[in-house]
Amino acid sequence: MFQNEVILCGSSSYTRKFYLNRDFSRLPEAIKEELQIMCVLFTEDVGGTLQLVFDAEGNLEFRTEVEEGDLLYDEIGSVLKIKQLRNEKQELLEALQMYYRVVFLGEGLKEE
């Protein structure tokens, strides 16, 4: 279905907004809320922007960006926070990858 990357969600400390891709509107509310909390707290803690992106194989990646001249962005904190989130949210992240691979990439479906 999808050939390139797909953004699951993102947050920005600059606009103070959270974005959830409409293609994922069928996710349970609890998961959508957990994603929002995770992303917003990340950008509040370290600054910049954060996106959770599925690559072409269905792997979920964390992407951060910072505006040029942003002296408040904590680059080291960003790396540490992503490592912490990968550990603490491992089950959620793996479930999201599985959901994406089955629903969007059609993996695991047997053709008859």
Describe the protein's topology.
Blueprint: E1 6-12, E2 17-20, H1 29-46, E3 49-54, E4 60-65, H2 75-88, H3 90-103
Antiparallel strand pairs: 1-2, 1-3, 3-4
N-to-C CA distance: 19 Å
Number of helical runs?
3
Strand neighbour order, sheet with most strands: 2-1-3-4
The low-confidence runs, each spanning 5 or more residues with pLDDT under 50, are none
Order of helices and strands: EEHEEHH
- Describe the main β-sheet briefly: 4 strands, antiparallel
How would you sum up the global shape?
A: elongated
Provide the helix percentage: 40-55%
Strand proportion, as a percent range, falls in 15-25%
Radius of gyration: 15 Å
Mean pLDDT: 93
| Structural class label | alpha+beta
Q: What's the count of strands?
A: 4
Number of domains: 1
Pfam families: DUF6145 (PF19642)
